[in-house]
Amino acid sequence: MNVHDSKQLKTVIKELSDFESLQKMHYECIEADAMPSLSALEEIVQLCRALLFPGFFGYDAVNKQNIAYHMGICSEKLYQLLSKQIHSENRDEIALTFIQQLPAIRAMLAEDVIAAYNGDPAAESYAEVIACYPGIRAISSYRIAHALLKLGVPTLPRMITELAHSETGIDIHPGAEIGRSFSIDHGTGVVIGATAILGNNVKLYQGVTLGAKSFPLDEEGNPIKGVPRHPILEDNVIVYSNATILGRVTIGKDSTIGGNIWVTQDVAAGSRLIQAKQGSKSSKEV
Amino acid sequence: MNVHDSKQLKTVIKELSDFESLQKMHYECIEADAMPSLSALEEIVQLCRALLFPGFFGYDAVNKQNIAYHMGICSEKLYQLLSKQIHSENRDEIALTFIQQLPAIRAMLAEDVIAAYNGDPAAESYAEVIACYPGIRAISSYRIAHALLKLGVPTLPRMITELAHSETGIDIHPGAEIGRSFSIDHGTGVVIGATAILGNNVKLYQGVTLGAKSFPLDEEGNPIKGVPRHPILEDNVIVYSNATILGRVTIGKDSTIGGNIWVTQDVAAGSRLIQAKQGSKSSKEV
Amino acid sequence: MNVHDSKQLKTVIKELSDFESLQKMHYECIEADAMPSLSALEEIVQLCRALLFPGFFGYDAVNKQNIAYHMGICSEKLYQLLSKQIHSENRDEIALTFIQQLPAIRAMLAEDVIAAYNGDPAAESYAEVIACYPGIRAISSYRIAHALLKLGVPTLPRMITELAHSETGIDIHPGAEIGRSFSIDHGTGVVIGATAILGNNVKLYQGVTLGAKSFPLDEEGNPIKGVPRHPILEDNVIVYSNATILGRVTIGKDSTIGGNIWVTQDVAAGSRLIQAKQGSKSSKEV
Amino acid sequence: MNVHDSKQLKTVIKELSDFESLQKMHYECIEADAMPSLSALEEIVQLCRALLFPGFFGYDAVNKQNIAYHMGICSEKLYQLLSKQIHSENRDEIALTFIQQLPAIRAMLAEDVIAAYNGDPAAESYAEVIACYPGIRAISSYRIAHALLKLGVPTLPRMITELAHSETGIDIHPGAEIGRSFSIDHGTGVVIGATAILGNNVKLYQGVTLGAKSFPLDEEGNPIKGVPRHPILEDNVIVYSNATILGRVTIGKDSTIGGNIWVTQDVAAGSRLIQAKQGSKSSKEV
Amino acid sequence: MNVHDSKQLKTVIKELSDFESLQKMHYECIEADAMPSLSALEEIVQLCRALLFPGFFGYDAVNKQNIAYHMGICSEKLYQLLSKQIHSENRDEIALTFIQQLPAIRAMLAEDVIAAYNGDPAAESYAEVIACYPGIRAISSYRIAHALLKLGVPTLPRMITELAHSETGIDIHPGAEIGRSFSIDHGTGVVIGATAILGNNVKLYQGVTLGAKSFPLDEEGNPIKGVPRHPILEDNVIVYSNATILGRVTIGKDSTIGGNIWVTQDVAAGSRLIQAKQGSKSSKEV
Amino acid sequence: MNVHDSKQLKTVIKELSDFESLQKMHYECIEADAMPSLSALEEIVQLCRALLFPGFFGYDAVNKQNIAYHMGICSEKLYQLLSKQIHSENRDEIALTFIQQLPAIRAMLAEDVIAAYNGDPAAESYAEVIACYPGIRAISSYRIAHALLKLGVPTLPRMITELAHSETGIDIHPGAEIGRSFSIDHGTGVVIGATAILGNNVKLYQGVTLGAKSFPLDEEGNPIKGVPRHPILEDNVIVYSNATILGRVTIGKDSTIGGNIWVTQDVAAGSRLIQAKQGSKSSKEV
């Protein structure tokens, strides 16, 4: 770098360092805790996976003689990493309670794996589903994040589901309530909003949106936070690829929603919705 | 960690280590080989890319004098990594045969690159297509995985395409049969099912699904595996963004399928399908 | 490796090293510069993020006393990395000019963050938006890449937006012109073409395509590059999930485009378009 | 691992885990702080070197424009790492005070560099001395460790000089008192004991020991700690290679001690000691 | 690299690749196993240290609740790494037997630590001795290597002691027989030959050589391997710094050998040897 | 860090950043090249070792089929790294010439290996000597550094031998002239000065110094650089452990110098020198 460049750079640096110019955008470390560390979060998710699916994630030669050592090491590391990243007074207690919930989460995920296997003729084994299916990865991260959110942990749950979003293209808000035997096939583009409620045996294909149609504004024109605004899907609902369901509507149980359609009203139980007929084949427009 | 926490943790660890509770979910290393290593797979894909597109991937200063050294090192590493990850008796032979197919795969990919370049006014050079286009990455991984699947390699091919799925948002099952000069533009959300058949010069845009509509169940209610259930796209078919084509239907050659539509029936050669007209503009619903 | 394998491998290596067989596909390092390094680009993006959002990216304990040191180190590293990756005669000048634009880019991104926060009831703080929202990551990379493209930097801008595409599923061409207070919610599958023009306060949901319908070919049948072929969205336009807008059409200001629809014609200002009614509920087809 | 091995391993593990068998050997983390982290210590030494010799260690392109950024970042990291590794109540204060002494330590080291340069005809520049001479590395670590010891920091100083011992073969106890313009040439095997006192302009060659001859035992036969038991070398003393000086003796100023000799008594100022004549040349013994 | 250089390089590469020119120097992988991996050996030593001194090496927060997990993981990793590096038919059995000896080795090392602590007034705690003293590191590596050598493991033991030699400057041949409560102070330059025998409570200072004086040649003039040729030190012998003891001589019990002397004959029990008087102080020679 | 600490730190940083205070100690990057990179040098040494001893260093499964690929890659990397680190106008030419000398250096090292094997009854194979003996490592680095020095490369050669010094405790100045079949046993503490000259078949043991006795000063009292001041050892000389030979003396061919002695005068060919008899055994002094 020549001297001229070096001086001009110094001017920009001064500008970029002007604390006032950051407004309230930057995270004020003096007044608040630092943001949770992204690399720590990635390790937390890896440890959870190793505890939930031993042999698939983490150490790959787990057997009856050594499983206790591996579960022991992973639990302990998880406890330490997690309690360090939780910004709360009773961080230790929360981390411990979360780990105590892992056996129950493992049981739920086992049902999710079975649902994915049964619902996909291309799946050749449970092992393939656990190792390869992005749906299972996203659902695992959701179930972990949801448990943390219920324990009152701020920020972290959302960061965990966004990590899974980046990895799988599946965006499940940790606030959503999702029942047992849930499966997502392929999954890229799936969005499940913060107040969505899904029953048991629900199945979604890629590109499905369970979103908000509109939301009430407060007196200053800002959206009112926390209002229920996402769909309710009852038991056994299937939604095909790229369908969009918006607003606090209820899709009745045993219904099937066809692909590429736009639903903003309640759908009775047992319904089957499909897209209107396509345009005339002689069109020159495309 | 205080002593109290430590003891409670010990109880959970015992629970998580209960071998019976794992049911058939965990990979039984005693009876079977370990799962293929994910990091080894990533290196395998990197080596294939370095062999298929020298100068773009791997060492970046390949020239006439040194190319043989680089191809030599990469081939040898690939041979060793691959034969180690293939769980089969004749693993060495399979790895060698696969590497012997790489020149032919390179020739096919060159045609794919040209197709992408010709089909996109924004593409400024072959180099840009190879270096930047997620479509080419996903197609490369598919062609690699498809070759391995044909050689009878289990699990690995699916893991390779899922790596590409995570990287590009494009999910091509290694079982699909895809012709020459194939291109995918942008690509996020594309799904191509296990029994799909695509001719030459097919072009897909982002969000296109070539999926299964439904599938026959066996007497116990489980899906029958291996039945042809995905679309056939003949030569020169173009499918626009977010279109969904489901079931064992045939899209005749030279057809164009418009975006955001839902196709579950055969389409005659030379057809152009577009979405029905949109709703009235005065709607207050949105 | 046994001797037999080793000899056969040698034959393939020779074939793979045949320089002529590479056609014009490989990057000719003798005649041209090496491709920009992917890992260098990733570091460049990290440094930009650290400069634009101090406290969130890079060092996490920035305060009034030390911010100048951190901005200084990051600026200097960025200058060096960037000027090394730009293949141009006046690379130093370009790198410096780019860094001088960072304060203005930071100001624009602050407005984007506020727009995302105000537009999403699930957002709990500016911090959450900056740390978690893939939309902000993709828009940051776009604004960086767009600035570099305007300075005449080749290849790099496209590689930067493709990195963001892989991370977020959002594909914004660096050539697009995008106004202030821009937001993308969820975002997976969004595509914004090279000649698209977006006004201020535009909001897009996941799966939205702003693409090209068709493009003129030259006398040899190749697409003519550089022709305006993507939509214009005027101020305050909202486009819901999975909508596809194709061609050089104009969506007039204050319009709302509903999800899952296909738009290939101009839309008057203040319009609201939604999908046609869905098919009869008694259908057995799905 | 077969099942038989696995079970036998389990038995050894039990034995190795028997807490009582550890006696007082293991570091009791419950009652005490963890040992300082070795990798943290290595980083601490690297940061000190970067602060003391900018341009040689740490960032290699320091100039007038950017030096403040680099000193700033390094000081801050050093403060944080150091205060974390010091096991003391007022760790923050100690870390700060230590950093405040660095300018003075830098001034002393500059004199040591000049002494080494002037004392070695093979040295071509100050730069070569700083970059290559193990003597300077060992003396730097000693001066750092000595400063920490004076501030009451436990364990750490000794670990720092042992790191230098492993790197250079020079073992200087942090408790030794060493004057200005000190130099060690080559240095492998040099030992300077905890209570040694060296004046200014002392020069040692490789293999020199300044050790303890014997030490008083207490009533239980254990050595009494803290008694002065190592030599005093006054100003301008030179000691040649492999000489051994033992006990609380004084080597008077301006003396020269020849190589390979064994000194256990005081030596008057200005003396020159050399080894007794070697044995007859006709000896067959060797 | 320009084309000219590139061609000349090609010529040298050909010369360097000439297999015949390697004579018997290179390790013939076709006929023999590959050399043990240096990085694997380093990990093996780290794991042994973690098992022998829990809390000091490896995980730093071992307590009663978790020690079994850590010993379990380390033992298992050690078993796998070790059995992979041992080039022998019954590699698994050897690795297991070695691990079964670790509790006994730990007990011996505890006595070595106590000996070092009692013998050095500068040592402030057992913890300091374990964490900082190069003597303990070298003795640990020796005891590990010696056990492996006794089990018939080739090459590895020597590589392990050479790693310690590089780290500490102390060179103990794994073939030496060394009793209990052994200590080495400072240690740089200590050499203990392959057939040396040391009793209990032996103490050596830095620079001490226990070497071979000369060795019988066979008819072709090559040294006869395996002949006892290094000293025997009986119980309670102390050897001061830089003393050289050569040949199959016996230093009788309770003897003290002063520094910088050269011993090639037996020394009776209870002796005290010191260097001859130094030369006249007026010498001008130095 | 609290605000108070932060402010005090800022004051020290200012002091440490005062450019004038650095005197001429710091490396002035504005006026000169940056110092050679230590990590680059380590890689350069690794590459040389891989080229000189294929199968031992670098890739461990070299065979007749693949050796050319490995020599090719290593040579090319070496060329690039080396020409980047050499601060000279004709850096490319120097790097190439150096690589062209590697076959000759390999031939010399092969003789050194044989000499070490023949001279040590404990050596079991050439392989053990190459893999384990620090002497061979130090001699390899010396021969590399010496060749670079002869080609006029500044600074680098000295840094290379200092890396070996740190690793092995053997300090050979790259300026020394050393003949064929050279061996060093154990080696810790060996020092060979810049103007030393060694014939063929010379053998040194640990702790041997070939140093300077004194050196002429110029009018300002500074040592005159470049004057021959280190010993000449003629063919077949053996020097035992811890012997010190100082000044421009000549040790005649076939001589043996015993351990722990101090030689400052010429020694006739065929001589055998040993230490004077040790002191009376009844001494109470030690």
Model description:
The structure is a homohexamer of 286-residue chains. With 286 residues, chain A is of the alpha/beta class. Chain A is 40% helix and 11% strand. Chain A has eight helices and 14 strands. In chain A, the strands form three sheets. Chain A has a five-stranded parallel beta sheet with strand order 1-4-7-10-13. A five-stranded parallel beta sheet of chain A has the order 3-6-9-12-14. A four-stranded parallel beta sheet of chain A has the order 2-5-8-11, with no helix packed on it. The first copy, chain A, is globular, with a radius of gyration of 23 Å. The N and C termini of chain A lie far apart (53 Å). Chains in contact: A-B, A-C, A-D, A-E, B-C, B-E, B-F, C-D, C-F, D-E, D-F, E-F. At the D-F interface, α3, α4, α5 and α6 of D face α1, α8, β13 and β14 of F.
Keywords:
homohexamer; 286 residues; alpha/beta; five-stranded parallel sheet; 8 helices
In short:
Six copies of one chain form a homohexamer. Chain A is 40% helix and 11% strand.
Class from helix and strand fractions of chain A: alpha/beta
* Largest Cβ-defined interface: A-B, 73 and 76 residues
Rg of chain A, alpha carbons: 23 Å
Note the total helix count of chain A: 8
Helix content of chain A: 25-40%
Q: How does the overall form of chain A come out from the CA principal axes? A: globular
Could you name the ranges of chain A where pLDDT drops below 50 across 5 or more consecutive residues? 280-286
- The topology string of helices and strands of chain A comes to HHHHHHHHEEEEEEEEEEEEEE
Main β sheet profile of chain A: 5 strands, parallel
Oligomeric organization of the protein chains: homohexamer
